Amino acid sequence: MVTGMTETAVNTDEIRQIEASEVEARFARGWHCLGLARKFRDGKPHSIQAFGQKLVVFAGSDGTISVLDAYCRHMGGDLSAGTIKGNEVACPFHDWRWGGDGRCKQIPYARRVPLRARTATWQTLEQDDMLFVWNDPEGNAPIEEQALPQIRGLDDGEWTDWVWNEMVVETNAREVIDNMVDMAHFFYVHKSFPKYFKNVFEGHIATKFFDGIQRDDVAAEVAVEHGSSGPRFLGSNSEAAYYGPSFMIDYLEYLFEDEDAPVVPSVLINAHYPIDNNSFMLHFGLRVKRRPGVSEADAEQGAQLMGQGILSGFMQDVEIWRNKARIDNPLLCEEDGPVYQLRRWYQQFYTDVGDVVPEMTDRFEFEIDTTAAVAGWTREVAENLERLQAADV
Predict the structure, then answer these.
(1) 217 and 296, same structural domain?
(2) 91 and 201: one domain?
(3) Partner of 299 for a Cys bridge, out of 105, 134, 290, 347, CB 3.0 to 4.6 A?
(4) Where a domain ends, among 128, 145, 162?
(5) Structural domain harbouring 52
(6) Does one domain contain both 310 and 325?
């Protein structure tokens, strides 16, 4: 006989069930960032796994970067394992040479090129030192109204170079997008303290406005482990917007207790492209405006350190994504953001253009009432500080 156990009557009708449909078997329409353009200007073809297939990216002798299907239409050779000859990529199998327009330009051993010697191409764009590729399951040209904006203010010569990182994440890209409306995870995952949080969705743009302060308990822990130096960090303000399904520009201001430079502007890029339906390549880049009186070398070093902090923040997200369940029916409280409205906005990029409905693109605004959250988090920070102080006694 087993003792010490109790039985609990459970009404299964009252249990909230997690719903998760199959991941969509198509890839989002829009511009996708492949990284910094200079990466592809090393005189070699590059292999990219994207949109469920293998692509080849190469820069011709004229500097133009092109993206083609990686497999030669002759006998299936891998063009990304070939060589660049002039403005063409040459197949390592039989030296068929393909131009950026998808046409075979030359077959050295043949009298003529077959009329049907065409391969698939992807339209590219270079902007702000980045390379973008347009994807559309319907095969349409880029939508003029959805052109990517240039980053504001980078042309004054006062910014550091890009600090750039990339990594493969083994989950569906929708998990990244959900963060746009998830205020509470900034406190629990990233150890920040949101005070203001608002979302605006309109057309192909989804924007997040965020003001946060430094957590005193986190600052105290860092001081114990690493000591404290430099101006005291006070918090940050952010205006972040997705332009389409996968490219976000975040105008991020860091606030310091510093008379000379109380505000340090930066630009953070958060971008991704799908490898397949269950993995994506995550890119994030950072540029920082130099503080007055700071040398270029010191500014670059500071940006590298800030980039490491950004990397740590993304790794916190990745750890959550790796272990969480996909959920189509999240159970929300009043202080959660507009998850369902964001996903409805996001769905437009997986829908044929002719089937996009106004509820996907009409303007929607939502500001979270942070009163209860701030009160609860203030208590938690105070309790954590008390424990830290007691541990030091």
Answers:
(1) yes
(2) no
(3) 290
(4) 145
(5) 30-145
(6) yes
Banded model confidence at residue 7, pLDDT cuts 50, 70, 90:
low
Of the residues 95, 116, 145, the one at which a domain ends: 145
The reply to whether 235 and 345 lie within a common domain is: yes
Measured between alpha carbons, how far is residue 280 from residues 38, 120, 133, 317 in Å? 21, 21, 15, 14
Q: Which amino acid is at 171?
A: T
What's the pLDDT at 185? Answer: 96
Q: How confident is the model at residue 1 (pLDDT cuts 50, 70, 90)?
A: very low
Q: Are residues 154 and 187 in the same domain?
A: yes
What's the chain's average pLDDT?
A: 93
Q: Are 198 and 86 contained in the same domain?
A: no
Residue 3 is predicted with a pLDDT of: 53
pLDDT tens profile 75-125: 999 999 999 999 999 999 999 999 999 999 999 999 999 999 999 999 999
Each residue of 170-214: pLDDT tens digit? 999 999 999 999 999 999 999 999 999 999 999 999 999 999 999
Domain count, the chain: 2
Q: Which residues, 6 or more positions from 56, have their beta carbon under 8 angstroms from its beta carbon?
A: 45, 46, 47, 48, 67, 68, 69, 70, 78, 79, 80, 82, 89
214 and 321 assigned to the same domain: yes
Three-state SS for the chain is CCCCCCCCCCCHHHCCCCCCCCCCCCCCCEEEEEEEHHHHCCCCCEEEEECCEEEEEEECCCCCEEEEECECCCCCCEHHHCEEECCEEECCCCCCEEECCCEEEECCCCCCCCCCCECCEECEEEECCEEEEEECCCCCCCCHHHCCCCCCCHHHCCECCCEEEEEEECCCCHHHHHHHHCCHHHHHCCCCEEEEEEEEEECCEEEEEEEEECCHHHHHHHHHHHCCCCCEEEEEEEEEEEECCCEEEEEEEEEEECCCCCEEEEEEEEEEEEEECCEEEEEEEEEEECCCCCCHHHHHHHHHHHHHHHHHHHHHHHHHHHHCCCCCCCCCCCCCCCHHHHHHHHHHHHCCHHHCCHHHHCCEEEECCCHHHHHHHHHHHHHHHHHHHHHHC
CA proximity to 31, closest of 119, 136, 102: 136
Q: Is the pLDDT of residue 62 over 80?
A: yes
Quote the distance between the C-alpha of residue 144 and its chain's center.
22
